[in-house]
Amino acid sequence: MVLSAALFIVGVVGVMIRRNIIIIFMSIELILNAVNINLVAYSSQQQNVVGQVFAVFVIAVAAAEAAVGLGIILAFYRNKETVNIDEMNLMRW
Amino acid sequence: MAESIAFYTIAAFILGFAVLVVTTRDTVHSVLFLVVDFLFVAALYVLLGAQFLAAIQILVYAGGIVVLYLFVVMLVNLKRPPEEYRDPRRRSVLGFGLSAAVLAELGLIAFWSRLNPAPPLAASAAAALPVTGNTEQVGWLLYTSYLIPFEIASMLLLVAMIGAIVLAKREL
Amino acid sequence: MIDVFVIPLLKVVIVLNATLVGVTYMVLLERKVIAWAQSRLGPMRVGPYGILQPVADAVKLMLKEDITPTRADKWVFTAAPIISMVPALIVYAVIPFGDRIHLFGRDISLYITDINVGLLYIVSVASVGVYGIILAGYASNSKFPLLASLRASAQLISYEVAVTLTLVSVILMAGTLSMVGIVRAQESSHMWFGFVQPLAFAIFFIGGLAETNRAPFDLPEAEQELTGGFHTEYSGMRFALFFLAEYANMIVVSSVATTLFLGGWLRPFPNVAALSFLGIIPGWMWFLIKSFIFLYVFIWVRATLPRYRYDQLMNIGWKVLIPLAIANLVVTGIIRVALL
Q1: A16 and B49 in contact by Cβ < 8 A?
Q2: Is residue B118, in this structure, part of any structural domain at all?
Q3: Do B56 and C120 touch (CB under 8 A)?
Q4: Best mutation site among B25, B29, B32 for testing chain C: the one with the most C CBs within 10 Å?
Q5: Containing domain of residue A74, as a range?
Q6: Nearest CA-CA distance, residue B147 and chain A, Å
Q7: CATH number of the CATH domain containing A17
Q8: Looking at the domain assignment, is residue B30 inside a domain?
Q9: Could you give the number of structural domains in chain C?
Q10: Nearest Cα residue in chain B from C137
Q11: What is the extent of the structural domain holding C222?
Q12: pTM attached to this predicted model
């Protein structure tokens, strides 16, 4: 459990201090993995596979989110030629 | 005894590679460290007795999602050099501070729950399933008790697939 | 003590050595068979009938100069052939070569291990093998290998989906994910799965051709296209590793197809007592014979069929094989439930 908390922290720090949006997405994957580790740890402690079932759903959702997110990045990159998140401000002037 | 050693070794590797993922300058190296991280997480799952989940983790996460990331990184890296200087507007101090606050909060919760142990969960959670074997149990639960989330997850994947195709097309 | 450590270690050593020797002789076999198909003789000079040709090839590749492109990423450049070779070798941990045998008073099982998610392990290791190709193209730091590697890996991950779907229908028939369990299911139902699931067999074979970048799907690495594909910048031992990894993948696909569809170590028609004289040939010999038939068909197809263009290739993968595999899966599911 401490491991999953620490991994979660690393992911959150990664989301906040990097500018490259792809690395931000990968830090989000780290966060999701931390959650999964937590789920599996409790599932093995309680001798119950419900935790693993939920972890399977988390992986499925992570896959969907990665696909759509990367699609958005690619579409954005085609317009503005940058992956720097500070420059992705189409909604400001 | 050997299990604790294995656990701490794998945990150290997972955290080490995670820190490397977040701090490396070069994006491609970062993605590679992420792959290795996921492989170690799969090893941890095997240690915890979740073999089906470990195989799914390697198959979907390390073998599918990160390949996707690698593709996008290469398509984006074809023209640009690696990241330059650190932007002074970025508030890294605030980021570290907030993360430390979250960590402190989690630590407090863990400490408090160790002092006041909660009553054990009801026995219904550990009801015996009619099949044995890790994969069979996961499958049984997926198809009987958790059928509706299963169907919703498949709808979600279908929608994500269509969305990704639409987003990546050159002309609509 | 001995049972836990020494015997599996011995098995690993034997299997790895056999695989590596087999892979190098695959190269010779391919050159010979293609030569005979083209009415010529193939390598004949080195040793009697060219038997020692792989030794000559190995010596040549090891003595070649090891060139690294100047601005290439050193770590990734070195790691890519290793990442390509390792998954091809570690799959052998779960392939059953035969049933138990008696040696020196011990009952030794002829597989290294039997994990209860064996088939899933094989599929996941195959999906990690894609990284070697992507990284090889990237690390070469030049346009042609990068584009060729992106094409090759796109081809690989597309056909992975179709192959995995056919494997799911095999799992439906066998009811278990472990490789030994699948062979025993074929034993108990007295019918190889290749006859029960002919469509899955065909799709698996075509997908296996595409997964290992073999003709007629070898556009990304053909010599006439894109100046040699993703391993253009590699020379010497590293190129040898890529080359061997491809043949090792081929042998892996043959072994897996043998186990899943042709009954592993079972003799033909296990329940017909009239053919029990075939029982003289031990199980692992049957396994080798069936794998060899597969390998021969691989080489035969390469010598015969012309190469597919890349868009035709992706077309087949996504629009033909995947719907067929899904239809097969649905029909298998319905029949399995109906005949339960």
Answers
A1: no
A2: no
A3: yes
A4: B32
A5: 2-87
A6: 11
A7: 1.10.287.3510
A8: yes
A9: 1
A10: B74
A11: 2-338
A12: 0.84
Q: What is the DSSP string of B123-148?
A: GGGGPPPS--SHHHHHHHHHHTTTHH
Grade residue C224 by pLDDT with cuts at 50, 70 and 90: low
- Encoding tokens for residue C156? 């690989």
- Give ipTM to 2 decimals: 0.82
Q: Give the span between the Cα atoms of C134 and C126, in whole angstroms.
A: 14
Q: Kindly state whether residue A46 falls inside one of the protein's structural domains.
A: yes
Q: For chain B, which ranges sit under pLDDT 70?
A: 1, 77-96, 113-133, 170-172
Identify whether B89 is part of a domain: no
Nearest to B168 by CA among C283, A71, C87: A71
- Among C154-168, C186-200, C222-236, C277-291, name the most confident range: C154-168
Structural domain of B162: 129-172
Q: How far apart are CA C253 and CA C261, in angstroms?
A: 12
Cis peptide before C216 (omega within 30 of 0): yes
Q: Which residue of B has its CA nearest to C122?
A: B55
Question: Is the CB of B67 less than 8 angstroms away from the CB of C115?
Answer: no
Residue of chain C minimizing CA distance to B50: C117
Q: B87: which DSSP letter?
A: P
- Give a yes or no: residue B110 inside a domain: no
User: CB distance from B150 to chain C under 8 Å?
Assistant: no
Q: Say whether both B11 and B72 belong to one domain.
A: yes
> Which chains have 3 or more CB–CB distances shorter than 8 Å to chain A?
B
Could you tell me if B61 lies within 8 Å of chain A, comparing CB atoms? yes
